[in-house]
Amino acid sequence: MTIEWAPLWVPLERRLQTLVTSFFTYTFFTLPISSCLAVAILLYYGEMFVRSLLLIYFVKIYLDYKRNYGIMEGNGWLFYRSNRRYRNYFPVELVKTAELPPNRNYIVASFPHGILGTGTCINMSLDIGNWLSLFPQVRPKIATLDHHFKTPFLRDIVRWWGMVSVSKESLAYLLSKSNDPKHKDNLDGFTSNAVAVLVGGAKEAMDSHPGQYILTLKNRKGFVKMAVRTGSSIVPSLSFGEVDIFDQVANPPDSSLRRFQNVVKKFTGISPLLPKGRGIFNYNYGILPHRRRIVQVVGSPIDVEKCETPDPEYVDKIHGQVIDALERMFDEYKEKYTPNSKQTKLIIQ
Known about the structure:
It is a multi-pass membrane protein. With 349 residues, this protein is of the alpha/beta class. It has a single domain (12-348), classed as Glycerol-3-phosphate (1)-acyltransferase (3-Layer(aba) Sandwich). Helix content is 42%, strand content 15%. The protein is built from eleven helices and eleven strands. It has a seven-stranded mixed β-sheet, with helices on both faces. Strand 3 (138-144), helix 6 and strand 4 form a beta-alpha-beta unit. Helix 7 (168-175) packs parallel to helix 9 (222-230). The longest helix is centred in the first third of the chain and has 34 residues, at 12-45. The protein is globular and about 60 Å long.
């Protein structure tokens, strides 16, 4: 295949968007490993003073996790959550279909995962201005792997971006917070927490290919149980175009690559994907995402009855409502937000 080079003369703003996107993309792919390497290098080559500082830092990480699972309360520093050029690169849009009253907490069940969950991450983590305009008084958060919050350096960056641990304890802590405007946790004017959970996780990421909306959901009921235990409403969400910004090396279910990915996922929670995108100066080789529109549609909340010990039949009922809502949303919006809507189907497995 011939390399398709980008034109020499490209507007400066587009160049800056590409630069910002390359920073975030390489950061997402390399930060877990580079954080561990940085710690190893500092411990091995650092003098006593550096090692002492690291020890203090490790203690702080431990105490923060014991106190609130490493969560940065409130919306954090908005400077780190206002990356407009990253949004405009694709661009990423946010569509509101119903109100989210700030008198309760929410689990935003987000699909599909795609390679990086880019649409949801931008709207609810990296550039939250649109969210705050559409859903006032509702703090957006994104749940990610628990061990990120125990890894030095990595945990600070994901905290700044408004991410939280997806562990049961962390979600219960956040979703059980008071919605009283006078409560000390709500003095910032926000009275609700909306936590996005990319339910399909690493399994769904392995099924991500352009034009293929394959959701891993039928046996994923933990988020429903958490919603029932905390009395949080479930908000179904679909990001149209999420699967189109990357392709990946072919990995059918019976392939050697998929078997390898499954083994790594079993032990680490991360599937080692081989993404195919574009480069900084070309359009068909590299691991940068393509400039393709992503539209996250946020559905109507599904209210639940709070119960400390969720009844399996009730969990199945709510789980079925989530599936029905996603299917309706897909049928309603696919013609508007997908390029080949007649050939595009939603598969829930």
